[in-house]
């Protein structure tokens, strides 16, 4: 159906940081990286002004072959393999179309606001040692990507760096690091590689969100899990005018909305290259109004809202064709992946304590 990308980082166990070998490769890598740093364009935005998206190299590119070398032959053989193949670019991974769409939005923003630093800023995050960066840089250049910021941690956790970069979203194959980022207040999700991929727009970034435990807190989901469907509906009716608390990805939706408004200000609402979607298993009449009132009170605009009343999300997502869909329940992530949608799991809230394949998700 779809493959979960292993949590272990490519070629570098979290607790290790081997010395680069051979020395000539290490020296060459350091020189290449210094040269790359010296060539940073003047229009690279400052992190505090940008919408920073940190992407693991393992979701940005396909690295399964290299991972097998590491697992079967060890670190030293893996390092030699990377050096021998450093001129061979990695193939695109599940986050690749999303990042390309971010760059498309940046190009449009630069046309309208040439001096503005309110842009998407992409950081490539990897556990690898710096000398593996040569192949990553070659791959980025091969695919004509604009990624100037690297975070090569040599086996250390990247979370502290993400906070220093004011990261708005972190995408990784490592579920443990995603949970660590969420615990630090960083919007984060675990990405997966579907067996098939639906073609997505090359001119418009499309981002789809689940509601409870993603944009909103898991308050309503907790009522449903503890007391059942009737109490859930009763709770929503009684609290119709009470705003839901924020969820882990509210801030990322706010960042998208801020950039959308820059296009609206130039009269491009109908031609905006960013489009957002709420795809929820809530029903519109009985529990949807509270979600919409909360978004309105937050000053956030969702372009499209789909209240599915428990119907499968996969077919709707196939029609939307988002570059990424965020959900806190693996059941919905799997359903989306079966239809070819790149779905990301947000391991947050009460649903993580229940069977991830459960089909009851009314509060979603």
From TrEMBL:
One of its GO terms (cellular component) is cytosol. Residues 11-21 have a biased composition (Pro residues). GO terms for molecular function: 5'-nucleotidase activity; magnesium ion binding; nucleotide binding. GO terms for biological process: adenosine metabolic process; nucleotide metabolic process. Residues 1-49 are annotated as: Disordered. It comes from the Eukaryota. This is 5'-nucleotidase, cytosolic IAa. It comes from Dicentrarchus labrax.
């Amino acid at each position: 159906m779809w493959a979960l990308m292993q949590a272990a980082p490519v070629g570098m166990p979290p607790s290790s940081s081997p010395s680069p070998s051979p020395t000539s490769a290490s020296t060459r890598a350091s020189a290449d990286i210094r040269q790359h740093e010296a060539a940073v364009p003047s229009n690279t935005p400052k992190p505090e002004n940008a919408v920073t998206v940190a992407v693991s190299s393992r979701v940005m590119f396909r690295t399964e072959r290299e991972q097998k070398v590491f697992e079967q032959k060890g670190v030293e053989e893996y390092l030699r393999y990377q050096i021998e193949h450093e001129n061979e670019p990695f193939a695109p991974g599940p986050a690749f179309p999303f990042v390309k769409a971010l760059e498309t939005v940046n190009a449009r923003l630069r046309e309208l606001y040439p001096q503005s630093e309110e842009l998407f800023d992409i950081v490539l995050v990897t556990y690898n040692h710096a000398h593996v960066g040569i192949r990553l840089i070659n791959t980025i250049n091969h695919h004509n990507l604009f990624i100037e910021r690297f975070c090569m941690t040599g086996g250390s956790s990247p979370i502290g760096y993400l906070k220093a970069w004011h990261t708005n979203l972190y995408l990784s194959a490592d579920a443990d690091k995603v949970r660590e980022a969420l615990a630090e207040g960083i919007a984060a999700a675990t990405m997966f590689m579907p067996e098939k991929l639906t073609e997505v727009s090359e001119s418009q970034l499309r981002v789809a969100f689940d509601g409870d435990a993603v944009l909103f807190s898991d308050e309503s989901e907790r009522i449903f899990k503890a007391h059942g469907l009737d109490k859930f509906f009763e709770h929503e009716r009684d609290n119709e005018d009470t705003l839901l608390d924020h969820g882990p990805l509210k801030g990322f939706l706010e960042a998208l909305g801020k950039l959308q408004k820059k296009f609206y200000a130039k009269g491009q609402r109908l031609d905006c290259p960013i489009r957002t979607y709420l795809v929820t298993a809530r029903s519109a009449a009985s529990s949807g109004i509270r979600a919409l009132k909360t978004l309105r009170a937050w000053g956030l605009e969702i372009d499209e809202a789909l209240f599915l009343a428990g119907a499968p999300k996969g077919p709707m997502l196939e029609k939307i064709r988002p570059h990424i869909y965020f959900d806190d329940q693996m059941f919905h992530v799997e359903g989306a992946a079966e239809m070819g949608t790149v779905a990301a799991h947000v391991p947050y809230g009460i649903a993580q304590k229940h069977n991830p394949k459960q089909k009851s998700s009314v509060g979603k």
